[in-house]
Amino acid sequence: AVLPAPWRPLRDLLDDPDVLRDRVSGVRAYLAAGRPVESVPVRVAASVTHLGLVARLVSPSFGSAVHSGRFLSLDDAWWQPTLGGPFPLSVSGSFADSADGLFDGWVRGLVAAVRGFSVSERVLWGNVASAVNGAVVVVPPAWGARARAVAGELLARPELRDAWERPGGRFRRRSCCLIYRAGDGSGGVCGDCVLHRIG
């Protein structure tokens, strides 16, 4: 299906480098929040962009797997590149029996693309692990056990196996998404950040 503007093919994020560059630039300006845009390092904006994109793409497929046991395909997906929250996403109703298509195509493709902004793979796969764990939080309690099982399967994938840990039973990534460097110097890290070890 072809959707009218302002919808855009999601595939452009992987196929057209300018689309990803524009997204990173927009996120960078948004994070600067009125300060000089140069106050936010490009690689910080790129990592935050990646985390937002991955979280938005993983969540619907994750929810489908929890509900039906099948992962939603993103082969025919459209988006509106808005900022400041989850962007509008339209996905066709095709499904897959495993998450291989999601990971081998979209997730791995975004990791490779954002590497071009000097963001380490360790940080990027940590973003993916954080997105998977974050998807569990929004699942209704009645589906909690199934959601944790699906998340466990995804987090056990070779790409993610070393990206997270669970000290004391609580999920924590083994890297930082770098968003703490986008602020005004007052600090602050995400709830699952490895930097919680400090102090």
Distance between the termini: 52 Å
Structural class: mainly alpha
Sequence of secondary-structure elements: EHHHEEEEHHHEE
Q: Shape, please?
A: globular
Q: List the strand order in the largest sheet.
A: 1-3-4
**Biggest sheet features:** 3 strands, antiparallel
- The number of distinct β-strands equals 7
Measured as a percent range, the helix fraction is 40-55%
- Helix count, DSSP H or I runs of 4 or more residues: 6
* Average pLDDT metric: 93
Query: What percentage of amino acids are in beta strands?
Result: 5-15%
Work out the radius of gyration. 17 Å
Catalogue the unreliable spans.
none
Describe the structure.
The chain is mainly alpha-helical and 199 residues long. The protein is built from 6 helices and 7 strands. It has helices at residues 12-15, 17-32, 42-68, 100-115, 121-137, 144-155, and strands at residues 8-9, 71-72, 77-79, 89-91, 95-96, 164-165, 172-173. It has a 3-stranded antiparallel beta sheet with strand order 1-3-4, with no helix packed on it. Strands 2-5 form a two-stranded antiparallel sheet.
Jot down its keywords.
199 residues, mainly alpha, two-stranded antiparallel ribbon, 46% helix
